[in-house]
Design brief:
The protein has five helices and three strands. The protein has helices at 9-23, 48-55, 61-70, 79-84, 102-111; strands at residues 34-37, 74-78, 97-99. It has a three-stranded parallel sheet with strand order 1-2-3, with helices on both faces. Strand 2, helix 4 and strand 3 form a beta-alpha-beta unit. Helix 1 runs parallel beside helix 3 (61-70). The radius of gyration is 14 Å and the shape is globular.
Length: 122
């Protein structure tokens, strides 16, 4: 992560996507966002304790994720990425649900009617 004291740009982009829909008159109850965290972004969803240990600062992403969850957004993390970065479920915030992989999660969400929108540079 470039700046461990700032909300990760991808988390901000999820919020921006939600806010753009609201600004364009979409009722909140009609907005269903599912964010799939994978690759290096797993560092942004570390629990407060794990984040403090790694970056010696509080995790600024947790409040944003909590606010988005309260708005109805869902967050999933790729189990393959977790393994690659040597993290277990105890290292991440409980606000994010573990998934087998990002690929299978994308397929399942597609079958549920979600549209894919890449908000990451990765």
């Amino acid at each position: 992560m470039k700046d461990s004291t700032a909300i990760h740009p991808v988390i901000l982009e999820v919020a921006r996507t939600y806010n753009l829909n609201i600004a364009n008159g979409v009722p909140a109850e009609k907005i269903h966002i599912a964010a799939v965290i994978h690759g290096g972004l797993v560092q942004a969803i570390l629990s407060e304790e794990a984040y403090q240990k790694k970056y010696q600062t509080s995790n600024p992403n947790l409040a944003a994720i909590k606010a988005l969850e309260n708005a109805g957004d869902k967050f999933y993390v790729c189990g393959q990425s977790m393994g690659f970065y040597n993290h277990s479920s105890k290292h991440i915030t409980p606000l994010v649900k573990m998934a087998i992989s990002a690929k299978t999660t994308f397929i399942i969400l597609d079958q549920m009617g979600y549209s894919y929108l890449n908000v990451s540079d990765d």
